[in-house]
Amino acid sequence: MKKYISGYAINRIQHAMNREIHFLLDNDYVTPEQLDEAARVGLAFRMMVLGVVARIDFSGVSMRTRHPIGFEEVPLDYEYKKLRQLVDAGHSGVKSGRGFYDYKGKSQEEMYRERDIRLIEIAKTLRKLEAVGPLVKP
Length: 138
Known about the structure:
The structure is a single chain. The protein is mainly α and 138 residues long. The protein contains 5 helices and no strands. It has helices at 9-26, 32-50, 53-59, 81-88, 108-132. The radius of gyration is 18 Å and the shape is globular. 1% of the residues are buried.
């Protein structure tokens, strides 16, 4: 970081993204499965190659990205309804066997191992791409 800010850069971006995620889920615009798939094949796929800032350059730098036509921003004080239901029911995700998804039948260790194997494979692929050289040079 160039200078300190509470929450650090990526955590702040994730916090803003979480507000939007919960709004979409609470209001039944998408299912958790649909949203995860869209993020994997759209957002995450591009971010692994471009990052978050170069992605803006490739999309086209425009003030319309600040206020897209017809886009209503989620209020900063939005209360997460489905998250509250999960927490109240004791569903804390992988560690409890259930969250937005049901992980029963697999131990916490199995889930983390499967996740880590996939992350390692992605990291290997990214290293191969980085060996070719960066797409965007600072």
